[in-house]
UniProtKB/TrEMBL annotation:
UniProt GO cellular component terms: cytoplasm; exodeoxyribonuclease VII complex
Name by which UniProt lists this protein: Exodeoxyribonuclease 7 large subunit
Residues forming coiled coils: none
Enzyme class: hydrolase
Function: Bidirectionally degrades single-stranded DNA into large acid-insoluble oligonucleotides, which are then degraded further into small acid-soluble oligonucleotides.
Domain Exonuclease VII large subunit C-terminal: 123-338
EC number(s) per entry: 3.1.11.6
Signal peptide range: none
GO BP terms, alphabetized: DNA catabolic process
Gene Ontology molecular function: any one: exodeoxyribonuclease VII activity
Domain (OB-fold nucleic acid binding): residue spans on this chain: 5-100
Keywords from the named record: Cytoplasm, Exonuclease, Hydrolase, Nuclease
Annotated source species: Pseudobacteroides cellulosolvens ATCC 35603 = DSM 2933
Length: 396
């Protein structure tokens, strides 16, 4: 009789078969990522595909937390892991233990991804860059306590301006935990406010050796810093994320020391030149002002201060006389014109005519002046205006 199996037994059997296969236990697979999902638990679920097939993949948080880059849909990668069966769903899938970009280094890809991310957020914006102090009283240096870097910085600053106080904050500049140490040092220095400018320094090295200065935690601390930060990591050709976020990039740690610490002899020389130029300018200005004073005191205004007043008073008297004379002439002219017009008006006045024996007759009913015999009728009441009064009468 044929054996009857349960679904669980079949899935378990297939899992055992696949697990014993040497080829599927430790393999490397090349493909393209699609349907990528980063679960809230930290696990990554995605599909790896080529031109004709695909396989489900899972990368648990235990492994993906070590990735230097962020997987994306469409990214070609090389994956290391093993194939097994998920018994509950009866689905075989690839359990990923390692992942690297296909054709480009993981660190280089992570560098470009973080650079693009921070640039979009504005961490590289020039408007946020703080100016360096002209003459700092204290300089903080975050670097390794051993090696040539710190000795070069101390020697150069001591030679250029020995009055500057150098405060060294030793940290690991590479390896596990270096980025966190650098970040904590920057934050700590900002809380203490004990320096005027801060230098992040490290000698040259490979991308892996400089990686601590490419970590996001360091970039965030530099951006938050209220103290100006100078990034001096590696050689002139080396660029890190810290260089883009910092307020100033120095090609080398030695160059950073020269940027931060002015040369004392040059400052003294500049100061002496400024003092000389100021004294010469003051003397020249004094001579100019003295000559102006002499010209003013020699002028007629100072020798005869009231002459201008007297001249103006005389002009005022002349203007007053001219004004009075003009007013009198206008008054005489208008007086004569008034007399002529008054005579004409008097000649035309009805009173003058009445004074010669004439009278004006009006109809008392309507006040109309009687000009013709036809304007009256029998019984009409009239008013006769004479030179010295009026007479009322009736027409018979």
């Amino acid at each position: 009789m044929r054996q009857i199996l349960t679904v669980s037994e079949i899935n378990r059997y297939l899992k055992n078969v696949i697990s014993r296969d040497v080829l599927l236990s430790g393999l490397m697979v090349r493909g393209e990522i699609s349907n990528y999902k980063n679960h809230y638990s930290g696990h990554m679920y995605f599909t790896l595909k080529d031109e004709s097939s695909l396989i489900k993949c899972v990368m648990f948080k235990t492994y993906n937390c070590e990735l230097k880059f962020i997987p994306e849909n469409g990214m070609r990668v090389i994956i290391g892991g093993y194939v097994s069966v998920f018994e509950r769903d009866g689905q075989y899938q690839l359990y990923v233990e390692s992942m690297q970009p296909d054709g480009i280094g993981a660190l280089h890809l992570a560098f470009e991804q973080l650079k693009q991310k921070l640039e979009k957020e504005g961490l590289f914006d020039q408007s946020f860059k703080k100016p360096l102090p002209l003459l700092p009283r204290a300089v903080g240096v975050v670097t390794s306590s051993t090696g040539a870097v710190i000795r070069d910085i101390i020697n150069i600053m001591g030679r250029r301006y020995p009055n500057i106080n150098i405060k060294i904050y030793p940290v690991a500049v590479q390896g596990e935990g270096a980025a966190k140490q650098i970040s904590k040092a920057i934050d700590r220095i900002n809380k203490l406010r004990c320096v005027d400018v801060l230098i992040l320094a490290r000698g040259g090295g490979s991308l892996e050796e400089l990686w601590a200065f490419n970590e996001e935690v360091v970039a965030r601390s530099i951006y938050r810093s209220n103290i100006p930060v100078v990034s001096a990591v590696g050689h002139e050709t080396d660029y890190t994320i810290a260089d883009f976020v910092a307020d100033k990039r120095a090609p080398t740690p030695s160059a950073a020391a020269e940027i931060v610490a002015p040369e004392k002899a040059a400052l003294k020389n500049d100061l002496n030149n400024l003092v000389y130029r100021l004294a010469r300018s003051l003397n020249q200005n004094l001579v100019i002002q003295r000559n102006r004073l002499f010209r003013v005191t020699d002028s007629a205004a100072f020798k005869q201060p009231f002459d201008r007043i007297y001249q103006e008073r005389m002009r005022l008297d002349i203007f007053q006389k001219s004004l009075i004379r003009a007013l009198q002439m206008n008054f005489s002219e208008y007086k004569s014109r008034f007399a002529v017009l008054a005579g004409k008006l008097d000649a035309l006045s009805p009173l003058t005519i009445m004074a010669r024996g004439y009278s004006i007759i009006k109809d008392k009913e309507n006040g109309k002046v009687i000009q013709s015999i036809n304007d009256v009728y029998k019984g009409a009441e009239l008013e006769i205006n004479l030179r010295d009064g009026t007479v009322d009468c009736v027409v018979k």
